[in-house]
Amino acid sequence: MNNRAVQLKAIERLLNIMDDLREKCPWDQKQSMETLRHLTIEEVYELGDAILDNDLEEVKKELGDVLLHLVFYAKIGSETNAFDIADVANSICEKLISRHPHIYGDVKLTSSEEVKQNWEKLKLEEGNKSVLGGVPKSLPALVKASRIQEKVQGVGFDWEHRADVWNKVKEELDEFEQEVNLQQTERMEEEFGDVLFSLINYARFLKINPETALERTNKKFISRFQYIEQKAVDLGKSITAMNLEEMDLYWNEAKNFNKTKK
Q1: What is the CA radius of gyration of the chain?
Q2: Measured between alpha carbons, how far is 197 from 159 in angstroms, rounded to an integer?
Q3: Structural contact between residues 210 and 139, judged by C-beta atoms closer than 8 angstroms
Q4: What pLDDT score was predicted for residue 259?
Q5: How far is 152 from 89, CA to CA, in rounded Å?
Q6: Distance in angstroms (rounded) separating the CA atoms of residues 68 and 18
Q7: pLDDT, tens only, 193-237
Q8: Alpha helices in the chain (DSSP H)
Q9: If DSSP codes are grouped into helix, strand and coil, which group holds residue 206?
Q10: 24-29: Cβ within 8 A, 24+ apart
Q11: Which pTM was predicted?
């Protein structure tokens, strides 16, 4: 593994390259924080894919792309004297020190839960008006629900027993079914949202990340369906010409194929 001097030299190299690109490359000169924003989001999702695939070589590459974006934003900030990369690094260093008084102070915290609760307490003491104020508005709904629940749990607003959470899931399912039977579209949507929210809450109690769980299911479904598509190609027919019975046959074949690969 690289030593600290080599690591710092590599970061300096990246900063120098960013200076060159911003000065000499027409595309890089044209970029602003606004134009980079959607590209950054895309890069973070690509990093997430690599992590789920446990492809460490790809993780390394995607981390590089994300790091480039961080350096790019800092470079743009420096051009108006708003901030530079040193300000960015020092800002997060100061936050980490102040939010970890059990490391850099005399506070005694022994569990990760205590650390999380103290983190939220410190945020409120720093002037945050709401525990939920730090949840980004643009987060995908499933991730946002998970973060909301984690945030309020950090200040003690939580169920005491896992069984109570599961009972809440069943209660929400019953209410959803009632609205389905009544065919009340708006109420169905509302109750369906409550079902999802309660399931996400239950996943938290089971220490399951709901976003990761759903994405793994997405990947599994894609793999199995593409197996069916390939079978259609092997048979010399369009998948639209397959009936449901054939699709089910190859779907189950794909399930067994994936099990044997493991």
Answers
A1: 25
A2: 14
A3: no
A4: 66
A5: 28
A6: 8
A7: 999 999 999 999 999 999 999 999 999 999 999 999 999 999 999
A8: 4-24, 26-30, 33-52, 56-79, 85-99, 101-104, 112-125, 141-153, 162-182, 185-205, 210-234, 244-261
A9: coil
A10: 28/72
A11: 0.70
Q: At what angle do helices 85-99 and 56-79 cross, to 10 degrees?
A: 110
* CA 20 – CA 14 distance, rounded (Å): 10
C-alpha torsion angle, residues 217, 221, 224, 229 (rounded to 10): -160
Q: Which residues of 152-187 are buried (b: 16+ CB within 10 A; e: fewer)?
A: ebbeeeebeeeeebbebbeebbebbeebeeeeeeee
Mean pLDDT of the chain, nearest integer:
92
Residue 179's pLDDT is what? 95
CA distances from 213 to 123, 199, 200, 204 (A): 30, 12, 10, 12
Dist CA 186 CA 183 (whole Å) = 9
**Token pair belonging to 96:** 């980490």
For residue 239, give the DSSP letter. Answer: G
User: Closest Cα to residue 204, out of 165, 156, 164, 155?
Assistant: 165
Residue 17: DSSP 8-state: H
> Cα-Cα-Cα-Cα dihedral of 56, 57, 59, 64, to 10°?
150
Confidence of residue 2 (pLDDT cuts 50, 70, 90): low
**pLDDT attached to residue 258:** 67
Report CA-CA distances (Å) from 73 to 31, 48, 87, 105, 137.
10, 21, 12, 32, 21
Q: Are 107 and 141 in contact (CB under 8 A)?
A: no
Q: What is the number of other CB atoms lying within 10 angstroms of the CB of residue 262?
A: 4
Alpha carbons 72 and 22: distance in angstroms, whole number: 9
Nearest to 79 by CA among 131, 19, 124, 136: 19
